[in-house]
Write a structure and sequence with these properties.
By secondary structure, this protein is of the alpha/beta class. Helix content is 33%, strand content 19%. A hairpin with a 3-residue loop joins β14 and β15.
Amino acid sequence: MGAVVITGVGVISPVGIGKEEFWKGLIEGRDGIEEIIAFDTAPFRSKKGGLVKGFNPKAFIPPPKIRRLDRASQFAIAASQMALEDAGLTIGVDIPAERTGIILGSGFCGVVNSEAFHRGQVQRGPGDLNPILFPNTVPNAAASNASIELGIKGPNSTVVQSFCTAEMALLFGCQQLLAKRADVIVTGGVDELSPILYRGWNALRLTARDAGDGERSAPYDLKRNGFIPGEGAGIMILEREADALRRRARIYGKINGLATAGGASHPEEKVARSISGALKRGGMETIDFIDGAGNSSPHLDAVETKGLRLALSDRCLDIPLSSLKSMLGEGIASGGIRIAADLLILERGVIPPTINYEYPDPLCGLRVVREGLNASIRTILHTGISLDGTYMTVLLGRADGVF
């Protein structure tokens, strides 16, 4: 698909803010999921969420601007700042603003602001609306607010593709680079966990519940019974490989393959097709680690397992696999945080554990990593699955010999 590399990472997550604290949380197996006290969960089957803790927007955004920004936009601005700094890029100095783009994935963006705005309209009428809230009621608020705050003047877009939202943003960002519409792309995903979103997942009966073993995110475990919603932001800096080499940038990894498939019927076949497509585009067979999409949903985890077996046959049983969602929870755009983790795994050669994996499900039968594992990692297969009809695979590889 052409040579696109990743040169910067910024993360805000339930297990840590900033790449070093995030990494420490992952390798320690820190559980970022806890009981929600920010809003009332009494009416729901679920009580927990993967909430970001200790985030101070004043560290990234001038205080007068904060009250005009929804929480998702604050996450996006902060994580994008961290990623650009990590890449050693200052917009307008190292790269023209017009040649820098931002392509973010966000499912619902500032739902809290949207709910407040529309509730005011219903309760008080259109003559008494808060104008500050209105700009943040659209899904593209995070990307737009980040572009304004950071001075990005190139391509600007927001992608929504169910639980493959961040992966699709990555694909679109690569296309912008390869078409030379920009020289640097800020991309990834951002989620904000709000009461209305939490109510929605519970109403669909997709979330985990306490069935005697505690409410937990337990991907691939025999007793899993639903996912736990999470939030945060995972942002990457994309560049063409030649440009990154020219400026002697530190390269975390290459995007060796990206493939997508669609359709609601026979989802395991679609998972397999996306995996095979990514491997074909990458021109490689070897996989050293699988970053699984398993989110503790009985059906999704089983579909992923069947798809892996169809695409890789029995060799998938020998490849270490971990689901970071056991620590982070699930979000529409949580693939951004997962890809950030993948890049650190490539760089540092340690596979984080899948926590809460106590009773292996024989129908899955994968090599699930229970404790942190030191390993030589050159290629990572990252799966993204949304059972309403979208399946994506990202194949990442190391870029050895690059400063």
